[in-house]
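Our consortium's second objective concerns turning raw sequence data into structural hypotheses that experimental partners can test. To show how far this objective has progressed, the report includes one record in full. It was chosen at random from the queue rather than selected for favorable results. The single chain below, 378 residues long, was entered without modification.
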Amino acid sequence: MQNAGEARPTARTFQWLVLGVGIVTISALHYVTDPRYAIWHGVYQRLYYAPIIIAAYWYGVRGGVLAALLTSLAYIPHIYTVWADNPAYARSQYVEVAMFYVAGLLVGSLAERQQRLTLRYRRAAESLETALGTLRESQEHLRRAERLSVLGEVAAGLAHEIRTPLAGVKGAFEIISSRVAAGTPEAEFADLGERELNRLDRLVSDFLAYARPRRPDLRDATLGELIEHGAALLHPRAESRGTVLEIERPAPNPAVRVDPGQMQEVLMNVFSNAIDASPPGGRVRVRETTDPAWNVIEVIDEGSGIDPAHLPRIFEPFFTTKDKGTGLGLAIASRIVSAHGGEIDARPNAGGGTTVRIRLPLAGSPREPAHEGAGDTV
């Protein structure tokens, strides 16, 4: 149904023009028809209701009242001039004019009520369709998640089984390497094979760490010791690239409840990425601070930064921009930090480079993991 707010201005103009022509035509019939033909005048009076009802249906109460007003303005002069010598009939016609307004009000009210109900049902139908679409999408996501879960279990089992023969092959290469003469092609091939096997072993280990995470063994610890230990382990790597690793710890910070081994893995992953991203001669700053409920570690590099298109995906498994990366390091770090009730994110620096921020709840804060085994499992 159409109303004044929905119809376009040109359509409204045309509709009112049609209604006006109808009222004028009916009024003209009144004026040209001899008063002796009262039966025809009665027909014309009933015809007046057509434009009133149509206007009320199209435009509601206002449209019905306006059409009744136009009709009465056109008809009252006829009553006053033609039926003045018949007061009884004239009074009945004035009552008829009043009925024009009653018809306009009644039909307009019903039309507006119908319009509101139609709009309500339309919105309900749209909401239902949206809800059904969301439900179908959720079901599809659930089915996909179930398929991926099964695939992940199979892949994890396969990766676990690969480790045993992989260890045997590595042992064989170590024996071969120990028995070939240095500088020979055999020694070069043995060294190449050993390096590739080590890379494959790291990939399998990373995949199993992500697919079957170990529950954290939570205990009170200070992150400063873990930071210092991680920096010491990576110092030769940073030195070989000409990168300076700086640690900023203004004051001793409160304890956090963490699994030291898992958190050391997180720090090593983030530190390694920052060192790899920084140019020769650059520096990586590790800054530890606290706020009311969090211990915060920021790792700031001076690299080229992360492409904004890649930023939302850097913590996804298997996403990497490195030529030889597995794409699991930051995904594992994110899962470990989440299992500790913390948060990890990355953002570009204004002057270039990237800042990775790790936030862990202080011991005794509301977000502290309630018990050991807060991590998730697959």
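The partners drew two points from this record. Confidence is low (pLDDT under 50) at residues 1-7, 372-378. The domain at 219-361 is CATH 3.30.565.10 (Heat Shock Protein 90). Both points have been shared with the crystallography group to help prioritize constructs.
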